[in-house]
Model the fold of this input.
Amino acid sequence: MSHQVDYRDGIAVTRLTGRITVGNALDDVREVVEEEIAAGRLRVVFDLGGVNFVDSAGLGELVACHRSLDKLGGRLVLAAPRGKVRDLLELTRIGELLSVCATVDEALQRIVED
Amino acid sequence: MSHQVDYRDGIAVTRLTGRITVGNALDDVREVVEEEIAAGRLRVVFDLGGVNFVDSAGLGELVACHRSLDKLGGRLVLAAPRGKVRDLLELTRIGELLSVCATVDEALQRIVED
Amino acid sequence: MGREETITLSLPSSLAYLDAVQGMAELLACTAGFDEEARLDVGLAVREGAINAIKHGNRLDPAKSVCIEFRLTAGVLKIAIRDEGAGFEPQLTPDPTTPENLWRSSGRGLLLIRSLVNEVHFRRHDPGMELILIKSRPADGQRDEEAS
Amino acid sequence: MGREETITLSLPSSLAYLDAVQGMAELLACTAGFDEEARLDVGLAVREGAINAIKHGNRLDPAKSVCIEFRLTAGVLKIAIRDEGAGFEPQLTPDPTTPENLWRSSGRGLLLIRSLVNEVHFRRHDPGMELILIKSRPADGQRDEEAS
Ligand SMILES: Nc1ncnc2c1ncn2[C@@H]1O[C@H](COP(=O)(O)OP(=O)(O)O)[C@@H](O)[C@H]1O
Ligand SMILES: Nc1ncnc2c1ncn2[C@@H]1O[C@H](COP(=O)(O)OP(=O)(O)O)[C@@H](O)[C@H]1O
Done:
């Protein structure tokens, strides 16, 4: 997995690419959120448009990231999940815990509105 | 494997694509040559530009095709093999039995000259 | 492929082999004639089963191995994943979709597995847990919507 | 991966599984940290070894199986391919690169295998032939040019 952070209106939009699965990829995802928290930025958007595969550990890591931010009054919004990734977010109802938006723009709007 | 036949100056240039390996792919290659022979066309160019993988059975089939044509006074020329395919033609010295050219144009020239 | 044919894979309890295990499952589903989507489903289901066998069953003990048996017959792929651990009672595992459990970062593997294949069976051995996954090709067996 | 770890694959004598076997070999070479080229080399070498075991060793008898053992240690992948056949004497197989043999449509498998890995060993059992392939990562072991 690789990632790239862009700031839009002071909000970190992190584009994740590849597979979010048990192993190093989970540490990478975790670090992204930890860095944001360390910098005092508590609203994060994960752009999942480039993620082609997640397993249960990857899904769990997304929840863990949300939990870390939520505890501090922050928020994680997921954007643009594709195919199976989107299906699994629905199946596991993770989409009811943290917001899942079809596009990054929608995600930014959602996170600003709240 | 898939293939597509184009006629250039009355010579069948067959572009092979994919893997030439033990199994159906070998029958496909064989049929191409059999059809040409049945039609009385004994000079054949195989454009290997789209072939990414051969095994020993695939290499053997190329030799068998050449043998069938040669027996009738015809000829098989291989064009544009890439990477590992080219290496294996060299390793096995098949390139000394039938001509191997870097491009289809060269192959056509070679086959006309002989 | 008229008769049943069995391919057996045995590996040490290390998560390092997960990608290979998943890939092998996908390749065999391909050999069995499953379409792209079913192939990926089988791959993920086997991956999740293997993670559990390695982590919960064998507790990452490299001396213990995980055995995966793929049985192919026309239109059906049966996969048995067996570990050397203490086993567990599947019906006692918490539902990960309840509002409290939604916040947990684990507990979703079995839910995924159940959604990805047509049937899941559990068998306790002494020692060891065996998970049996059955995936049928929609064209040959029941349709996916009916089965899940 | 300090210790040696062994992954075992056992399959019926059918050419239908060749792509899966090759894919598995590539995936394990990847797990062992080999680069793209070495991975493909290992995959093709194992494919050729498996073809021989299935075709010449077990003569496509579906009741006989082929066993492939992958042993991974830091920088080295050792692969043993074993069949249940009558075996053969490798030094008695004809050289496929002589002018007469060049015209033959078979007999190139062992030549390919030898060129793709660093070492090839043969062991006769009773019954069964075992082919042992050793591939080292250039960075850790000898360089490819020196070895072949
Ligand atoms: N092979 C196994 N051996 C022992 N316990 C298991 C096994 N597979 C699953 N379990 C138990 O079932 C629980 C739920 O598993 P699962 O749904 O895959 O989620 P997770 O692995 O994320 O906890 C695990 O936490 C574990 O307690
Ligand atoms: N596992 C095996 N069991 C018995 N004979 C074998 C085995 N592997 C190879 N051979 C013998 O060695 C010969 C050369 O093998 P190879 O170089 O792979 O070419 P090919 O398989 O195309 O004949 C085979 O024709 C066969 O007689």
Observations:
- The domain at 5-147 of chain D is CATH 3.30.565.10 (Heat Shock Protein 90).
